[in-house]
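Researcher: We plan to redesign the surface later, but first we want a full-length starting point. Tokens attached.
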């Protein structure tokens, strides 16, 4: 009884008039007699009963073809068009080395020689062998073949080579 008075006092303090009116009253509805006794039987019957057959939805052939076409078009669009056009990188055919001096390039290669791959260095050496000698139109490879074929360089003394330059 004291507990009911405490509850009523709290409801008055919180100005809950509707709850104050309902507090302590008898509910207007009642359980039907024997409801709880029949409840277990009704639950068991409902759970063991055969499920009702669901309605099967079938798409006609036209709708299936249309859906497949939409999927193919969406995948094609996703594949052929880049997501962000701003992030695509394009490489030019030949790099522009005109702004860098030859000495700077040679210094860079000399100081970072260990960073280059051996295949890359070998490829650049082969390309250098086939370059044209400036002003002559003759490749360095052709000059080397000529000098090796004549064997005249092997027969000369070193002093003869440098006599003209002294």
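Model: Full-length starting sequence:
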């Amino acid at each position: 009884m004291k507990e009911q008075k405490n509850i009523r006092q709290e409801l008055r303090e919180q100005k809950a008039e509707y709850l104050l009116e309902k507090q302590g009253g008898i509910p207007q509805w009642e359980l039907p007699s024997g409801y709880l006794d029949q409840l277990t039987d009704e639950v068991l019957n409902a759970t063991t009963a055969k499920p009702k057959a669901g309605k099967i939805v079938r798409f006609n052939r036209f709708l299936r073809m249309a859906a497949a076409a939409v999927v193919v078009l969406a995948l094609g669009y996703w594949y052929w068009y880049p997501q962000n056009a701003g992030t695509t990188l394009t490489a030019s055919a030949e790099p522009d080395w005109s702004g860098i001096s030859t000495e700077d390039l040679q210094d860079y290669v000399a100081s970072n020689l260990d960073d280059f791959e051996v295949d890359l260095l070998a490829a650049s050496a082969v390309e250098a062998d086939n370059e044209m000698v400036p002003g002559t139109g003759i490749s360095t490879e052709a000059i080397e073949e000529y000098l090796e074929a004549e064997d005249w360089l092997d027969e000369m003394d070193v002093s003869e080579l440098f006599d003209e330059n002294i």
